């Protein structure tokens, strides 16, 4: 189990570090979103500068997860971002994105592995 959680942590952190750095360096071609509400929403995110802030948080969360020492904090930063990516894919683009689904599964697994660190958040 130790090695499985290590691999999951490295994969999740790498996904967010690589794709957030790609926002600035453009080394992976990103197709434009399909026409419709997803394209309009994405356009507003880019034009407002909000997307840049999200990418900074993705980089921070990915690095925290990769560090191993602050994995739980990194998961707290990445959790809302992962949920918003899934909602964007499901509600606006109406398509399945395997990378975001994989990232969500990795995050849920890591939250389960580190559930003792999150116990204080759900205790009454």
| Strand content range | under 5%
Mean of residue pLDDT values: 93
Overall geometry comes to: globular
Helix content: over 70%
Number of structural domains? 1
Low-pLDDT runs of 5+ residues are none
Q: Total number of helical segments? A: 6
Q: What is the string of helix and strand elements?
A: HHHHHH
* Rg over CA atoms: 15 Å
Short characterization:
The protein is mainly alpha-helical and 124 residues long. The chain has helices at residues 2-25, 37-48, 50-67, 71-93, 98-113, 115-122.
Structural key phrases:
124 residues, mainly alpha
Question: Care to describe what's here?
Answer:
This protein is an all-alpha fold. It is built from 6 helices and no strands. The two termini are 30 Å apart. The model has no long low-confidence stretch (mean pLDDT 93).
Helix and strand topology:
Blueprint: H1 2-25, H2 37-48, H3 50-67, H4 71-93, H5 98-113, H6 115-122
